[in-house]
Amino acid sequence: MDKEVAAMPRHVGFIMDGNGRWAQRRNRKRTFGHKKGAEVIEEVVNECFLEGVEVVSLFAFSTENMSRPQEEKDRIFDLLGKFLKKYSKKLVEEKIRLIVSGDLSPLPQNLAGECALQMAKTAGFSEKTLNIAINYGAKAEITAAVNSLIREGKTEVTEEDIEGRLYTGGLPPVDLVVRTSGEQRLSNFMLWQCAYAELYFTDVLWPDFHKEEVKNALVWYGTRKRRFGGV
Ligand code: IPE
Ligand code: IPE
Ligand code: MG
């Protein structure tokens, strides 16, 4: 295969944006949008694995999202915990390894506990990985990686050192980023891992993002010519 011609991405990252606007357009509370948004996650993830994607990363809640009203945060955390609980059967059946990226210490105990439980239960799987970013920020991730190396006595670090300390250590880099809702920015999402990612932006709001939309993004990815700095 011509290595310049992209086929199926190994790793796809989704910036699941637009829940609030989806609800506001229906004169509903933002939290209703989060509920609907949580409902499409399973369909999107399943479609990716069905198409042969190895790693799916989901941006569910950023470090910056901590500044949102407590009621909205509580609802999002509750929905994420419920999603994980419901999806846990699938994780085992389909041998999907779960990684949760982010600082889980300030999260409600039921969510943090569910994350830890499902990560431990699926740690032995390697073919498919679901990475959910909760209270995650790329800058915090990279800073923590460097600090952990310093604590070990390193005075100089390599790219491999840093990479090994990221939540995604050992996984392939992100090939394709999909962001919904028309925003064209990364908002501190996996900056290191996305260094050479193709960026796909769609106006579709996350609660309306179904498997057909996943297919559209993957087809678009297939048309990209990845050069990695070469000619
Ligand atoms: C994405 O939807 C979910 C999170 C960031 C937690 P938003 O809540 O950002 O929805 P909009 O962007 O306000 O429409
Ligand atoms: C990015 O969306 C974070 C998630 C999707 C979890 P935001 O809605 O927080 O991003 P900004 O603030 O519009 O950049
Ligand atoms: Mg948003």
Explain the overall architecture.
The structure is a single chain. The protein has 231 residues and is of the alpha/beta class. Helices cover 43% and strands 16% of the residues. The protein has a single domain, classed as Undecaprenyl pyrophosphate synthetase. The chain contains 7 helices and 6 strands, in the order βααβαβαβααββα. Helix 5 (138-151) packs across helix 6. The longest helix is centred in the middle third of the chain and has 24 residues, at 70-93. The chain starts with 10 loop residues before the first strand and ends in a 9-residue tail after the last helix. One 3-methylbut-3-enyl trihydrogen diphosphate is lined by residues 16-21, 61, 65, 76, 181. One 3-methylbut-3-enyl trihydrogen diphosphate binds at residues 15-17, 59-62, 64-65, 183, 185, 187.
Query: What is the number of helices?
Result: 7
Low-confidence stretches: none
- CATH-assigned homologous superfamily: Decaprenyl diphosphate synthase-like
Percentage of β-strand residues: 15-25%
End-to-end distance: 17 Å
Kindly give the count of domains: 1
Strand arrangement within the widest β-sheet reads 3-4-2-1-5-6
Biggest sheet, open or closed, and with what strands and sense?
Answer: 6 strands, parallel
CATH topology: Undecaprenyl pyrophosphate synthetase
Q: Any idea of the CATH class?
A: Alpha Beta
Write down the Rg.
Answer: 18 Å
Structural class computed from helices and strand pairing: alpha/beta
Helix content: 40-55%
Overall geometry: globular
Q: Which small-molecule species are bound to the chains here?
A: 3-methylbut-3-enyl trihydrogen diphosphate, magnesium ion
Number of strands: 6
Which CATH architecture is right? 3-Layer(aba) Sandwich
Rounded mean pLDDT score: 96
Order of helices and strands: EHHEHEHEHHEEH
